[in-house]
Automatic annotation (TrEMBL), chain A:
Residues binding FAD, per UniProt: 328-334, 410-413, 462-468
InterPro entries: Alkyl-DHAP_Synthase (IPR025650), FAD-bd_oxidored_4_C (IPR004113), FAD-bd_PCMH (IPR016166), FAD-bd_PCMH-like_sf (IPR036318), FAD-bd_PCMH_sub1 (IPR016167), FAD-bd_PCMH_sub2 (IPR016169), FAD-linked_Oxase-like_C (IPR016164), Oxid_FAD_bind_N (IPR006094)
SUPFAM superfamilies referenced in this protein's UniProt entry, alphabetically: FAD-binding/transporter-associated domain-like, FAD-linked oxidases, C-terminal domain
GO CC annotations, alphabetized: peroxisomal membrane
Enzyme Commission number(s): 2.5.1.26
Major localization listed first in the record, in broad terms: membrane
First-tier enzyme category under EC: transferase
PROSITE patterns from the UniProt entry: FAD_PCMH (PS51387)
A family per Pfam: FAD-oxidase_C
A single BP term in Gene Ontology: ether lipid biosynthetic process
Cofactor(s) needed for function: FAD
Protein name: Alkylglycerone-phosphate synthase
UniProtKB/TrEMBL annotation, chain B:
Protein name: Putative dihydroxyacetone phosphate acyltransferase
InterPro entries tied to this protein: GPAT/DHAPAT (IPR022284), GPAT/DHAPAT_C (IPR045520), GPAT/DHAPAT_LPLAT (IPR041728), Plipid/glycerol_acylTrfase (IPR002123)
Organism: Scophthalmus maximus
Chief location bin: membrane
Entry GO terms, CC: mitochondrial membrane; peroxisomal membrane
GO terms under biological process: ether lipid biosynthetic process; fatty acid metabolic process; phospholipid biosynthetic process; triglyceride biosynthetic process
Pathway where this protein functions: Phospholipid metabolism
Phospholipid/glycerol acyltransferase domain span: 135-264
Amino acid sequence: MENVVQRLLKCSTSTFFQLHIVNCTGLGEEGVKAAVATSRLERGKLRRRTRAAVETGVGHREPGPRTRRCPQIAFCPAFCDPDSLPPRVGWIAAGALASIPTPAAHGSAPSIHKHGSSMASNSSSSGGSDRQRIAQQRLRIIAGHLQRPAGDDSALLAAECKDQGSKSDASSEEKTVPRRRQEIMKWNGWGYSDSRFLFNKKGQAEFTGKRYKLSGMIIPGLKEWFEGTFGANLQHKSPATPILNSSAVRPPTLNEAFVEELKSTGVPFSHDAEDRVFRAYGHCVHEIFALREGRIGRVPDLVVWPNCHNDVVKIVELACKHNVCLIPYGGGTSVSSALECPSEETRSIVSLDTSQMNRILWIDEKNLTAHVEAGIVGQDLERLLNESGYCTGHEPDSMEFSSLGGWVATRASGMKKNIYGNIEDLVVHIKMVTPRGVIEKSCQGPRMSTGPDVHHFILGSEGTLGVVTEVTMKIRPMPEYQKYGSVVFPNFEQGVACLREVAKQRCAPASIRLMDNEQFKFGHALKPQVSSIFTSFLDGLKKIYITKFKGFDPNRLCVATLLFEGNREKVLQHEKQVYDIAAKFGGLAAGEDNGQRGYMLTFVIAYLRDLGMDYYVMGESFETSVPWDRVLDICQNVKARIVHECKERGVQFTPLSTCRVTQTYDAGACVYFYFGFNYRGLSDPVHVYEQVEHAAREEILANGGSLSHHHGVGKLRKEWMSETVSNVGIGMLKSVKDYVDPNNIFGNRNLF
Amino acid sequence: MQHRDPMLQKRDEFEDMLEERRNSSDLRYALRCYTPVLYKGVTPCTAGALKNMVLQSAQIHFVIGQVSNETGRAVDDIQEEASAILEEMAHSLQLSTVRFFAFTLSKVFKTLFRSICVNEEGIQRLQQAIQEHPVVLLPSHRSYMDFLLMSYILYTYDLALPVIAAGMDFMGMKFVGEMLRMSGAFFIRRSFGGDKLYWAVFSEYVKTMLKNGFAPVEFFLEGTRSRTSKSLTPKLGLLNIAMDPFLKGEVFDVHLVPVSISYERILEEALYARELLGVPKPKESTSGLFKARKVLSEDYGSIHVYFGQPVSVRRLSQGKVDRGQFNLTPRHIPKRPSEEIHSFVNDSAYGLVRAQEENMVLKPWVLLASLLLQNHHGDQASGRARGMALDELTEQAVWLRDLSRQYGAFLHWPDHVPPPEVVSSSLSLHRGLLTITEGRVQLASEQAGGPAGPGEPPPVGPEEELLRQAVTVLSCVSYRNQALHVFLRPALLASAVHAASSSGKQEIFNSFSFLRNMFSNEFILCPGATVQDFEEACFLLVKTGALQVSQQEVVEVVVTERGHRTLAFLTSVLDPFLQGYQVVCRFLSEEANEALTEKQFVPTVRKFIIKRLLAGRLRYTEVLSSDLQKNALAALLRLGAVRKIKGAEPGTLKVNKVMVHSLEDALVWWDSHELPGLDNKINNNPLMDAAVK
C-alpha cells in the first residue's frame, strides 16, 4: 500500500508543478519529476518532525507513531472517488491538517502556537476520533493534489477563472474566507464568531471556541489584571448590539446600467445589507464602537466578488464606463479608516472583494517564487505553501485575515522580516488593474535599474490607483527547526540597548520583540490555568530567582521574546549568540514558554479589545518606526502623552499606556503602542479616544517617529501626509493618481 | 479684546518660616532627617558619577572630535581640557555643608529679618512638580542672599536641593566659593564667546542634571542682580539649555517655576546706588564679606518669597515650536537654535520675568518712595526743599494704594492698621534715606553715604555733594522701581494720551507704540505684544475712570475730570526715563566724537550729565544711573541711530546725528509739561514711524 501512496504522491506533485516543469530545460522531464517529488516528501517529513519537536518542547525528536502511521490508514471513499471533491477542497483540508496541534488534538501536551499553521482553521476537531480525522484530512489533501489540475493541461491555468457554478458553492464551506463573511466572522468585533473572551459566571475569564491554543481555557489572572489596570468592574457591562439590524442600513444607491452589465459578465455580486456592512469597516476603534452601538453610516452600495484577474479587468472597465466608485476590499483588517466610504462620495460605491481570488497559480522551485492571486489571506497562503514544503515567511499579526493584495497596498511588514523581509522585499512581480489598464513588469528579474521602480507606486497605494490581482512572491523552504525563547531584562532601557546591539551585529533572530513592564504583566495575566502543581511551583521558583536573587524590580523588568528559525545546529548557535549579547545587558534567559506566550498575545489581543468593550474599556494599538537613538525617548514620551491627554480629557482612571519594540533594523526600530482606558462616565468616549490618539501621533512625529511603519495612512493619518513626504512628494503622488485614475474611480480617498 | 481684571488674580497666603526657627532648636533643625522626594523616584547621583556621564556623552565626544579636527590638537589633550572645565564648573553638593548653612543661616536670618514669608501652596505645587518632571527654579535676583535663601527654603520644606548656576566671580572668594560649591552651586564663566568646548561641557552638564532629574536646576533669568530693582531683560543662554531636552524629545516635559523674592529692605541698597553712579563695586572677597558684618546690626524688615505656578514648557511651546525640526540631524550635534526656537525662548523668558514681577510683594514703602521722589523733584523744580507733610503723604499713599490694587499690584498693606501707622512704620525702617522734621518728610540730603559707606572723605565740592545726594535718590528709586511693572503700561498710555495731538485712538496707539518701543530695553515689555499691552492699559484706565473711550465716528479717548490726578501721577512715573533718554541723545548729538567707544560711553555721558545737573538744566538726578544710560544706548543701537563699527578700537560707536537729534526732539516734546501747539508732530516724523515699526 505504501507504494501506492508514494506513486500517488509523485503523481500529484508532478502535475502540480506542471507549469514549472514545462519551463525547465536541460533536465529530463522524468528526472525532474522524480527529484521534485522526493525532495518534497523529504521536506514534508522533516517538517513534521520539526513540529513534533517543538510541540513537545524537548527538541528534535523522531515523529511519533501517530504521524508516521497517517498514510497507512489511507483508505476512505473520498479517496476512491476524487471527483466527488471540488478542486480546492484539498487545499482547504490541508489547512485543517495544519490546525491539528491544537490542545484538543494533543491532550495536555503543550503545542506550538505558530502563525498561520496552527492558529486557526474552520474545521472543528473533536478529541475522540482524532486519529481518524487526521487520516481523512491527509487523504483529502492527496486527493486534492491528484485532482486539482485535472483537465488543466495547458499553461493557461493562471489566466483562467475558477468555476463559478455549483462546485465553488459546494466548497464555500471549506474556505477560510467565504463570500458571506458573516457565516464565520463577527460583524462588530474581531475575528471568528466562535472565538471570544468572556467572563464566566464565576467571574473567570475564558476564551471560547476551539481554534486557538487558548481556546476553551480559563485565564485566572485576567480578571484581576483587567480590574486593576482599568478600574473596570464586572458589574458594569456595556454590551454590544447583538444583531445587525438591516433596516438601519440605508438602501443602496445603485447604478442600474452598471449593474445590468455586471450581470452579463457573470461575476457574482450582492446588495444585501449584511454583505455591504461587512465591507464598510475596518477595525479602528471608532468603527467597531459604532457597530457595537448599531450605528451604521455610509456603506458600499454593492459588493462584487471577482474570481480572477480577468473578472477584475471587466469590473474596472465597467466602473470606468459608468462612473462608479470602486473600493477594493481584501481582508478587512485595516486600522487606518481606509475602508470607510468617503462621506462626500455621491456616486454608487462598489466594494470589490478580492477574497475569492485565493489560488496559488504556480510555484517555481528553481527560482523559489510563487505566483499567487492577491485575495488569498495569510493563513491560507502559508498553509498551502507549507503543503509543498515552502513558506513566504511573511507573518503580519493580522495574517489570519489579511490578504496578499492588502499587504502590497499598505506596505505590510511581517514579524519574521529579519529572515524573510518585508512585503517590498518579498515581491518579485505585481499585476494591478487600473482605470488606465493593467500595469506589470515584463520580466521577473530580481532587481532592475529602469528608472524609479514602478512597484513602489503600487506598494502603499492603499487602493487609490487600482486593484492588485496577482503577485509573484519569493518563497523559501520551510525552516527545519523553530525555537522560541525569552530574555528578562532588569529594565526597558537595558532591553532596548540589547536589541540595538543585536541589530548592530546583524544577528537578529527571525523575530525579536521587547515588551515593556506593563505588557510583561499583561502577558503574565494571560497565562492559562496551570494544571500541574509542579509547573506553578516552577513558576514560583523562577519568579523568586529573578526578583529576589537577581534583584530585578518586578515593576521595572521587561521581557524580550524571541523566535529562531533555520537548521537546528545554526539555530542553537544563533540562540547562544543572542543570549550572550543579552547577558551583557543584564538579560536572563527566561524560557521558551514565556516567548511563546508573547507571540500568542499578538493574536488574541484583538479579541481582548472586544472583551474590554463589553466592560467600558476602549483600546487600540498604533505603531511607528524611529531611529535607534530615539527609541527610548519616543516610548517614554508617547506613553506619558497618552496618560497626560487622558487626564486632560477627564478620563478618571489612569489609562493603560504601554509599548513594545517589535522590529529591529540597521538604523532603527518599529515601536508599537497600546492604549486602553475606562470610558465609563464619558459622554463621547470615541471623541476622547480620537483626541488622545491624535495627540499621541503628534507626539510620535515630534519625537522623530514616522507616520506609520506598516499600518498605512488611510484616512486616519492623511492630515500628516504632506509634512511627512513634503508638498512636492504629495504632488508627485497626486500626478500619478491623476494619470492613472483621472476620474477617481478608485475613490476611497486614502493617503492624500 | 477682553481683559482679565488683574485685581481678580488669585494669590496664595504666606507663612512665616522663621517663626518656627525662633521657637525651636536650630541645631536640631540643621541635623534633622532630610529625605526629599526626587523625580520619578530616581536615586541621587554622586558628583563624580555625574561628571563621568557628562564626559562620556555623545555631545562632548562630538565636540572634542570637532575641536581636534579644527585645531589639530590631540583628542586626549582636549579631553583633559574638558575634564578640567568640568572640574572648575561642577558642584559638589554635600549634605553636611547644607546642614552647616542651615544652621548658620538660621542664626543670620533671625538677626537680619523680621520674617521670611513663603507661600506654602507654592511649595506644595513645587513638590508635586519635582516628582513628575524635571524642574527649573527661576528666582528673581535682587541680592546675593537669593540663592542661599532658596536652598534654605527648600531644605526647610524637605524638597530636593537645587543645583545653582553661579557666576565665576564667586570663585574669587576662596573659602566661600568652595562652601557654595558644596551647597550646590556650580560656576560658569561670565563670557565664553567662541569656546565651543566650554559651551558643550557646560550645556551638557546642565542638561544631564535636568534630564535625569537628579536635582532641580536653578538659575537667574536676569543673569545678574538687578541693581535698580527693575527686572532685567532676560538672558536666554541657560533657558535655551534648559528647554533643549524637551524640545529634542529627551524628556516629556520640563517645568519652570518662577520665584519672586522681594525684600522689604535690600542688603545691598546703597552699594547698588554707588555702583550705578560709577563707584566700582568691590570685588567679591571673603574679607569683604566679613566687613559686611556691620549689616547684621540693622533691621531689614521681612522677605517674601512666592513660588509661582509651575510653567510647563510643553504647554508653552504648543503650536509655537515644531519639535520635528530636530528629526533630521543627530541630536548630539550642537546646532544654533532656529529663528523659531529663538523667538519662542525669548517670548517665554519675557513671560517668566513678567510672572516673577506679578508675584513680587510690594511693601507700602514702595509707594511712599514713589511719592517722596515725585515730591522731591517737584521741590527741586520750585527750588524749595520743603518735603511732604506726613498727613499729606498718608493721604496720597492711601490713594496710591487703592490705585495700585486696582492695577493688580500684589501689595502687602496691613489693612487692619490705621494708615498713618503703616506710613510711619515704613518710614522708620528706611529712616537712613529720609529726614523727618516738624512732621515733614523729605529725602535725606545730608546723608553720609548710606549705611554701608563709611570712611568717606567729607564733601568737598558740588559734584561730590550731587553724587552723595544721588546715592539717596537712587536708593529710593530702587524701591519705587519695584512698583514700576504695575504702572508701566498705564503710564505709557497716559504719556501717549498726554502727548498725542488729537484724542483719536489710532493716534494715541501710535504714540503708545513709539514709547513702548523706545523703552523696550528699559522695562519688561514682551516682544510683539504692543496691541495687547495697549488694550490692557486702556482697560485699566477706563476701569478706574481715568479715561473714557467714546465711540462716535472715530474712537476717541477722553481724560475724565477725576482722571487728571491719576494721569499726572502716571506721566510723572515715566518722566525721569524720558529725560534720561533725551539727555543721552543730546550727549550723542552734541558731544560724541569719532573715537567714542562703548567702553567710554558711560563715563563720558556721566560727566556730561553731571555738568547739566549742576547747571540746573536737568530735573532728575536719577538719570545719573548707568543702568539707564546703558539701556538708552542699547535702544539707540537697536533703532539704528547708533552703530557699533569695527574700527581700530573695538566697539567704536558711530552716531547717526540726524536720527539721534530727531529722536531727542520727539522725546523732549513728550517730556515737556505744557502741551505745545505743535500739530501732528508725531505723525509727520518719519523716524517715529520707523521706531513704531
